[in-house]
Structures are given as C-alpha cells and as structure tokens.
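User: Modeling request: complex.
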Amino acid sequence: NAGVTQTPKFRVLKTGQSMTLLCAQDMNHEYMYWYRQDPGMGLRLIHYSVGEGTTAKGEVPDGYNVSRLKKQNFLLGLESAAPSQTSVYFCASRTGTAPFTGELFFGEGSRLTVL
Amino acid sequence: TQLLEQSPQFLSIQEGENLTVYCNSSSVFSSLQWYRQEPGEGPVLLVTVVTGGEVKKLKRLTFQFGDARKDSSLHITAAQTGDTGLYLCAPGVATDSWGKFQFGAGTQVVVTP
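Assistant: Request completed. Predicted assembly structure:
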C-alpha cells in the first residue's frame, strides 16, 4: 500500500532557484495538506486543499504556491527559494467523510536545503 | 498564536519512568487527536478522544480528555526507548469550512536506556 508518497525526498537548491514538491495519494481522499517542520516548531500549515481545483492558505503561505489539478495530487511550488525555506516538508491527506474522527495520513517527508 | 499549547516542550527520562504531557486550549473542541512522530518519519495517529472526561488506554499510554473539552493529557507508564518521539495534539475536526487542520507545537520525548 503506497498511501501518501512525496517526491523528491531530498533536494538542495541555491537561493533564487525554483522547484516543485509532488505529493500523491492513492486513498481517494478529498483533503490534502502541506506542512513544514523546523526544529522546535512542530508542524506549521502552509496550504491545504478541500478538493480538485480548490486550495486555501494556512499559517505560513508566503513564498509558496500550490495546485490541485487532480484529486490524487497536490503540488507545492517554490518560485524563488530562500534560505528561510530550508525545512522538512510533509504532505498529508484525509477523507472528508468522517470530519470528526478523520485521521491524517502523512508522507515520509521531503528535506529541502536552500543555500 | 497557537490554537493548542503543548507542555512541556521537551522531556528526557530513563526507561521505566512515567511521564505526562499536556495539550491545552482556551477553546472547546468536539474531539482531540494525538499523533506520534518518530525520527525520520511522518506523524501517525495514536488516538482520538471525543467525550469530555473520556479516558482511553493504548497499552502503556493513557489519554484523557478534560471534562470541559479544552484540554487533554497523555500519560506513559514505564516508558520504553520505543516511546521516543514527538507527540502532537490537534483538534479532531477542521477549524474552518475548508478543512483547515493545525497541530500544537508538540512535546519532544526522549527515553534513554
């Protein structure tokens, strides 16, 4: 069972470069999320999506864009990477049919370093 | 500002000891979830508590939901090195109509042999 798959798992960028992180889920979940995790900061929500073509801003959206063209994929883009975006990025998904007890399923994370 | 405040931020104990971590808020929630994140992995759901005053047990882990549904605690009895990880709490429901889902900052637990 694949669950939630993130690619790439590791990436090193130079300041100003752009890149896209891909998240794919095979559970037919409606909701998808992108978080970043920094030491001592827990998980901070970047953007999220309630379904195909619909996205919303989280706590720390600046410097990131997202797209959800297909239900199973949620892309996180960095147009001009900055060292402050060095972090571990996690994607998660959940079903929309049980909003009160819905479990979030996470990918393994993508470690991004911006030099 | 954090929707949920977790304490302590960091806890280091030896195997066999007990520990308790807390998740507090000024808001009332219909349910709360606890996740554990092991090093190098994504968080995994441990439990959802849904009723005020509810106590749930998962082997050596005991979860309690406050009577007023504003706080929760996680107690680990006789901790093992496998309990090492980041413990995160989150509201059990989305906090807006778009499905927003946010976590507390977490408690890092380190259990040493």
